[in-house]
Amino acid sequence: MKKAEKRKIKITGTGFYAPDKVLTNFDLEKMVDTTDEWIISRTGIRERRVGSEDQATSDLAVEAAHITLKNAGLKVKDIDLIIVATSTPDTIFPSTACWVQSKLGADHIPAFDISAGCTGFIYGMILAEGLILSGINKRILLIGSEFLTKVTNWKDRNTCVLFGDAAGAVVLEESRDDSGMLSSYWKADGKLGDLLSLPGGGTRIPATAQMIAQDLHYLQMKGNEVFKHAVKRMGEAAIATLKKAGLEKEDIDYLIPHQANIRIIDATGRRLKLPPEKVYINIHKYGNVSVATIPIALHELNESGKLNDGTIIVMDAFGAGFTWAALTYRW
Ligand code: ACO
């Protein structure tokens, strides 16, 4: 008897939103002691998008949600859960997902956030798989939305050149064919949390004038330490998810790595022995938009017509926590 195919979830819609305002490396040259040449050679970033004063993370998420639902040919009433992955919520509570639910006019469906740094989108996919395959939900809107420029210290050249604002989303439901998520792998190491964090404003260091004077309300990062861990863990995650799917490195058609730094992306591609054309890169356009990088890349690949039936994609991320995760997907 032929072994039954594992039940899978499938992406039935993709989309993203990035604010119109562009901040180039040349603009940054006027703000801090840096150069376009340094930023490109060390990070691969040429420009990033910046949301407006009156926007918050939920506003970017709602724009991405409308575009994604339209691309999927769906209405808000067709979804039964909203998950928002973010490290830059509108408010500590309520969740950004609840603000999104209200703005979408989605009546009474559950909505919650997940916080897993830049790995949040892949964590969200794994969570959605469990919810859909267990029968709890039928069609989930998963959004990765980030407003990093509001938590960036614009006087710190070590970090301010790296980040941008954007949201990407997918619609997920059970697959009825061969396509879908084949395997996944997720890990965390909280011992290393201090290497990349936003220390102030929570219950450890509540908001005070002193906390603000010390710049603890801004993202802080030991960049070169994060870099070393990211290279190691992204390679580990990609290889582990492929193995779980019963596939080899040569089976990968596209690697969609989290877009944090071109050198981390290149190192991960080399570890998987992939030619450059199989490694998707858009960091030059958006910078590091954390949880939004993978759904944006996925949508761009989808739009460009490069995803055919059977195309094998590995999505791979690393972020604050530390967290790292990857998944293998057959289009
Ligand atoms: N312009 C010019 N010089 C700079 C800049 C800048 N913008 N930033 C740092 N420098 C200088 C430093 O001051 C240092 O100078 P010094 O040698 O005189 O002290 C020199 O450049 C080298 O600094 P490093 O930090 O060692 O530079 P590195 O090559 O490591 O690049 C970077 C820094 C780009 C931050 C890199 O470490 C990196 O990308 N790290 C990983 C970031 C990441 O992966 N984040 C992932 C998750 S993000 C999330 O979860 C939200």
Q: Quick check: average pLDDT?
A: 97
The ligands found in this model are:
acetyl coenzyme *A
Specify the overall morphology.
Answer: globular
So, CATH architecture of the largest domain?
3-Layer(aba) Sandwich
Strand content: 15-25%
Q: What is the C-level CATH assignment of the largest domain?
A: Alpha Beta
As for the CATH topology of the largest domain, it is Peroxisomal Thiolase, Chain A, domain 1
Q: How many beta-strand elements?
A: 13
- What is the overall number of helices? 11
Please report the distance between the alpha carbons of the first and last residues: 26 Å
- Using only C-alpha atoms, the radius of gyration works out to 19 Å
Structural class: alpha/beta
**Helicity range:** 25-40%
Segments where pLDDT lies below 50 for 5+ residues? none
Order of helices and strands: EEHHEHEHEHEHEEEHEHEHHHEE
Question: Number of folding domains?
Answer: 2
